[in-house]
Amino acid sequence: MSSLTFDHPKAIQGYVFIVYFANIMCGIEDKKYFYDFIEDDVLARFNLQSLTRCEKIHEEIKQSYNELQE
Question: Into how many domains does the chain fold?
């Protein structure tokens, strides 16, 4: 069990996970982190058990963001 699950009440865990995920994706974008750094609980929650799936969702998020900027 990760500290993300243990340290936060169930009522706000969804928020904690999404903020953590957004933060780590920004860190990956800035080359501060690697996909391997993502907590297993977060990967499971978002069904991202493979590196390929993480990379795909990251690209989709970047593409959506770029489209919003146009």
Answer: 1
